[in-house]
Amino acid sequence: MSFRTRSSAIVGTLCLVASLALTAASADERAAPGKAAKVTLKNVATAQNPTAGAAGPGGKLWIAERAGTVRALGDQGLSRPVLDITAETTTDGERGLLGIAFDKRLAYFYISYTDLEGTSTVDEFAVRHGKIQPQTRRTVLTQTQPYWNHNGGDITFGPDGHLYIAFGDGGAGGDPHGNGQNLDTLLGKLLRIDPRGGKPYAIPSDNPFVDVPGARDEIWAYGLRNPWRFSFDSGTGDLLIGDVGQSDWEEIDWAPASSDGGENYGWSQMEGTHPFRGGTEPADHVPPVYEYDRTNLGCSVTGGFVYRGGAIPALKGQYVFSDYCDGTIRSLELKNGKVIAMNDLGVNGGEVISFAQGGRGELYVLAIGGSVFRIDPA
């Protein structure tokens, strides 16, 4: 994730940070906000630079730490590492252990990280009786990264049981290699694979670019700059992507559960709904469902989840997100793929690097400084 740190941040701190005619709701031109749910942030643990979380065996939330460790969150706080790959990853730039995911049966555990050469890598482990089996480790997919930033790295299983993998455009600034719009590279894309269907993986036959000349079969959607965090609504199956902007606009993209894939979110011809450096809007551009500029300290969107827990009824069905530089926890109310309200939830998580969804649908906020918060009713 490409972060632009605020003045108080130390330079060099982690910079990770159904219709095709959707009109984006901006921070200046949005529907009147609804009545915000009353929430509070409860500090439930302190981790070492947490970057991602996933609901695991026994109802515990597993937390990834940037340097390469994974810990399980229980009633007594974080466990000792259940996995440690610190000797195999690098934390320069925006690199490190960036994503974790379980398959639906909790039988396999996946990690997304940058190795010592900076190559994005997705590895798989079998899980037996709630424990990782180190001897079963295998590499599923790798992608060379030309630069140290915009590595993406988020992974999650969709409602269809396939593994989705997000990669940024490769880094530097302004997409110098044009990866966002090029279908012959995995960079700047959201991928969809079947990790158990082949060696090292299989490509679902209904992926949108299968057998398209010059296109990579793994691609599900393209035109992304740095989709640092994305998620599926566990209630509807809709896809939401927080894509970090270049200079002016942060965006949240949406696709319905009925989508056949192939969406072009516009980068680097577009930044949000705006032409980027004289770019021309692609004919198949899918505009963001929401965007905001940086007039209020925002600099790097942190995508979250649609809340489907039971503790905060007033928040149910709303998409919860934040910004690394601003830290305010906000929510979007959507109807038929359009934002009808944006709510300030009145709490601040600091330098919010990620969100996590527990096994019962409750949401957690991860701050890069170490705090792990649960969003509770006020």
Structure, described:
With 378 residues, this protein is mostly beta strands. It is built from no helices and 28 strands.
Brief account:
This protein is an all-beta fold. It has strands at residues 25-26, 39-46, 50-55, 61-65, 69-74, 77-78, 83-84, 97-102, 108-114, 120-128, 131-143, 155-157, 163-167, 189-193, 219-222, 229-232, 239-243, 250-255, 270-271, 274-275, 290-292, 301-306, 319-323, 328-335, 338-348, 352-357, 363-367, 371-377. It contains no helices and 28 strands.
Quick tags:
378 residues; mainly beta; 5-stranded mixed β-sheet; 5-stranded antiparallel β-sheet; 0% helix; globular
In percent, how helical is the residue content? Answer: under 10%
Order of helices and strands: EEEEEEEEEEEEEEEEEEEEEEEEEEEE
Classify the beta-strand content into a percent band.
Answer: 35-45%
- Gyration radius (Cα, Å) is 19 Å
End-to-end Cα distance: 31 Å
Which ranges are low-confidence, i.e. pLDDT below 50, for 5 or more consecutive residues? 1-23, 27-32
Strand order of the largest sheet: 1-21-18-17-16
Strand count: 28
Net shape: globular
For the biggest sheet, the summary is: 5 strands, mixed
Instruction: Give the number of helices.
Output: 0
Average pLDDT score? 92
Structural class: mainly beta
